[in-house]
Amino acid sequence: MPSFDPPGFLKDFNSQQADAWSDWISQQLDEAKAGRPDLFDFDAPRLRFFNASLMAPAADAVEKDITWTAFPRLVSIDAATDEERWRTADSSRDAQDEYCEWSVARRADGRINSVTFTCEGPEYWEFLAATNFQKVLDLYQEFVDPAVETKDLRLTGGRYNARNKWNNSTSRGAMHLIQPNNTLGAEIELAAGASNARASGGTLLTNDQDLIRCGQYGQPERHSDPTIGGGVNALARANADITLANPVGIYFAGLNTSGWTTPDGSDASLYWKVARGTAAKPVRMVYAVPDGKGFTVSDIAINGNPIRFGGQIADAISMKLTGLAMNIGQSNHPPLAGCKRDAATPTTVSTSTMDVATTLNITRQSTR
Question: Does the global pTM surpass 0.85?
Answer without folding.
Answer: yes
